[in-house]
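cron nightly-structures :: item 1 of 1
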Amino acid sequence: MFGKVTKGMDVVDKIVKVPTTTIGSYQNVPKQPIKILSVQIKPQKSAK
């Protein structure tokens, strides 16, 4: 997935700091669930 955060980088910074663990072969799994309640997808501006 590719994208750009245009608002709410403070929220991204908080998610990055969440403690993680390893479960089976999966690494860096958040110890507590992370819920993203709202996302907006904006159309890409066409290159000229």
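cron nightly-structures :: done
The helical segments are 9-16.
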